[in-house]
Amino acid sequence: xxxxxxxxxxxxxxxxxxxxxxxxxxxxxxxxxxxxxxxxxxxxxxxxxxxxxxxxxxxxxxxxxxxxxxxxxxxxxxxxxxxxxxxxxxxxxxxxxxxxxx
Length: 102
Prior knowledge:
By secondary structure, this protein is mainly α. It has a domain at 1-63. 48% of the residues lie in helices and 8% in strands. It is built from 4 helices and 2 strands, in the order αβαβαα. It has helices at 5-11, 33-49, 63-79, 94-101; strands at residues 15-18, 54-57. The chain has a two-stranded parallel sheet. Strand 1, helix 2 (33-49) and strand 2 (54-57) form a beta-alpha-beta unit. The protein is elongated and about 70 Å long.
């Protein structure tokens, strides 16, 4: 089972159950025991049902999970107060600059 389709395809695993859930939530929403148990059940059922190599998509969706992850990423971008990277040396004080240039 996995939720990063590009990685699953690149890994060329013989049999995979794909879940379109955000990374870190491969079996579903946090504390949603019912969904988590059902995704694991269906994932394990692949051991009996796969007759040839391939990737199957399990029939679960969690749009709110993707919205949550996108919002979290946007919050991180908006709260990042670091200076942009550049190739110029940065010094805390003029004295540090002078010592480094000696």
